[in-house]
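Pair request: fold both.
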Amino acid sequence: MSQDSEAYYNAQELAGLAGMPETRSGINRLAKRNNWPYRPHSGRGGGREHPESCLPKETRKILIKRQMDALDTDIANLKLKKKALKRCLKKLIHMD
């Protein structure tokens, strides 16, 4: 995965996941102790975001599973929209 497309996560997103401490402060201590790379978090509250590649394998597995589940949901929603558009198109064709 290239650096440009790699997912980054802040301490709040990581807290409590498999292989991670339960708290944001625990995540921040672990990141500092292990010299995880980071970039400034641009969202509200600031802080740091860490790339997926520096996280423990068990944590990455959870995050990838969540991404896959989100894609499955997106695909299901697109299929529903496609069906609705087909119905609208059929109605328009029969109006002529």
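--- second member of the pair ---
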Amino acid sequence: MSDDRKPIKPPTLLIMDVDGVMTTGQFFYTEKGKIGKVFGPHDSDGLKLIRDELKILFITADKRGYEISKKRLVDDMGYSLELILEQDRYHYLNDRYGMENFFYIGDGIYDAPVLRDCFYGIAPCNARKEAIAQADYITESRSGEGAVLDACLQIQKIIHPDRKIEAEPANRFDADTLKFVSMAKLPSKFGIHFHNAGYSAHKINAVYIPLKVDSEDLTTAIELLRKNFHGAGISMPHKTRIIKYLDQIDDNAKNIGAVNTVVKQEGRLAGYNTDYHGARKAINDTLDISGKRVVLLGAGGAARAIACAVKDLDGEICICNRTREKGELIAEMTGGLFIPWEHRNKQTGHLLINATNIGMAAEDDRLPVDKDTIKHFDAVMDVVVGKKTGLIQYAEKLKKTFIAGRTMTVFQAAEQFRLYTKRCLSDSFLAKWL
């Protein structure tokens, strides 16, 4: 969540998923059913560090293994345990406790929106990629092998910021460190985790940090970029406004009319659009759209990049948008067809792409078109990151080919990484994020 929503003092409640956090996620069965789980050896010590300062609540969706968890956590350790189904988790915790009022440790796909919106979210290093993308902190240890101990040490730092708990490496940053920044009204956690993980994995002396920039502060942020940073990732709502501040723009970004990556080269700021690269690779690796009808919903910065990618892949692009002027502009730019928003449920084609904000909020499971409309497409794509949207879920139910938002995001971030560092991320690294 954004800093301006956080209470002045840290919360006094820690909520933690049991399986895949306190346990390794392994279960033991006999002919009688589930009989055991593997709990970590160090995590009890970690909880003792904070149990006098925080109320600790465990949650689980494992009905069959509930009594096993209860024996360890309630009977042996004295903590509270609640049984909550995964799909009910977000709404239950928000309604009962308020997202801003607790720390959270989770590892699964249903934990991702909770990790994103709680006061401070922590995920084990072996958690689902959706959870890692939304967490504020990633543990060094795996679940059931010290992840909770790592998390408790981190929580101690937040509760007692002036207390020296463990020494930071003295040489973590130096005069040669490449410094990159994410500039957005609400910088996402994904880019921070992705780039810093890439620098670490490939032993590059660099750091990527978030910078919250409102529209009225963009001029000041650009001066800060020129003087102090080597590059920047640009997100909503600055992708078009930033162009006037740049010294040069590559052809793709110029054609698209939006920039999402800035690299400082010999003191000059150069703008690029890696959304185009991400969209093109995500589509081309999955489908052949040459000569086939592609309906794109939306006309923002991401939609412009996707439309250009579709055009260059020889797809027949159709733009459907609420604001006619914006939609017609992209259609004209790409030689495509404009479709009024109210006609979106009358469309058919090969690929349907949602580039609107429908489905972006954690609790928003709306579809951008009717279910019957989805049935008239061979494949769907969504740009929303951090969750499996209603559109993707329904396409999966219909057994249609789909491209989730994370795929495009990972590919665009990889191209961004290359522009920043002049090095390519390894296939093995990317495989962990896709």
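Observation on the second member. Residues 1-8, 165-171 have pLDDT under 50 and may be disordered.
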